[in-house]
Amino acid sequence: xxxxxxxxxxxxxxxxxxxxxxxxxxxxIPLDLPKVVALVGxxxxxxxxxxxxxxxxxxxxxxxxxxxxxxxxxxDRLVGFKSEHFADVLSAYRELSGNVDTCYMFLDEIFEVExxxxxxxxxxxxxxxxxxxxxxxxxxxKGAVHTALSGRVYTVNVYPLSFSEVLSWRGIDSTxxxxxRQKDEVEHLLDMYIKWGGFPEIWLYGNSDVVKRKxxxxxxxxIVYRDLVSIFSIxxxxxxxxxxxxxxxxxxxVVSVNRLLGQAKSVFGKVSKDTIIDYISYLEDMFVIYxxxxxxxxxxxxxxxxxxxxxxxxxxxxxxxxxxxxDIGQYMExxxxxxxxxxxxxxxxxxxxxxxxxxxxxxSAGYLPIVVYYTLEESRxxxxxxxxxxxxxxxxxxxxxxxYGEKIKGVKTYSLRDFLLLPISSII
Length: 428
Fold this sequence. Notes:
Distance between the termini: 52 Å
Oligomer: single chain
Order of helices and strands: HEHEHEHEHEHHHHHEHHEHEHHEEEHEEH
């Protein structure tokens, strides 16, 4: 195994990583923290590319490539790698480099290997290494926190691209003054982003709706059938898939566990409520959904209440719906909520009487209520949304986000485009 590891290290030192694009999440990743830095997120959100980017950042600061090691434990050349082979990693690196300075270890999908925790802990505490690990399951980090890595993990959640990242990847400077033609192009890209989301491969290779749908379908099948079923030893994979598809199709809406249970029983017969609750929790751990609780001073009410579900990517919602059945308002709520979730902020919703407050964000200064709608063309919509804005003031100073930024007197309003391109600091 040591010879294989040596060849992989040499291959890494000679590899070209200049093509890898920047990501906004880089600002949350410390390069010299004496802890294990864990990058976790759904399949194909770009965790591996982030490790390349971190290497490039180190090189820009004068750290030579030979002070780094990258290993991907999903690589077929590492099939058969076991915990006893970890000793070979460090010794192979030392023999090749002769380096006694700080080593930066990038260990991709290391959750695949049992008992990895003791090895990475030794790297940090006894060998003076800086260690970065990745995985597609938050539970891997949660489990580690209670074992050999207790208090020694710094977790960074990685999500699909933001809209500003999409523009950057397309060579558009969202901070510059735009021509009418550029503005039209941005609006077109925003329509695409709302529907197809921000998984990197969608924007690199998704040159048709058929290709986009295939890419996203493959992701979802991999998450539900391979990861979810195998990792959690699920005995009813068809039921798990049903719950996943129901939640994704309803993203941007309030979901009742009891109603979901009733729907599942009508299809599958005997189903327990605990099973449904477990499956929802697993989908959170797999970074498929985000569950926004109802904002309430009562802990009991929070856990008894329904919750609002958001897909971590609207493209996953799209592939669960028949073409033409998309509700643009639900999609908009989802992309607005994800702007804050991506920044590590907690998101809630509230219900007052018959009125729902779409999104409530917890900030350092209190709460930010957000009312989201597509357009105010109909008078009925105007009355409903104005009432929601008034009720939202009970939770804080509200803002309104609409597709094209219609104004409401006395309220801060944004078009969806402007809202998504603004930094969080300019909003809260």
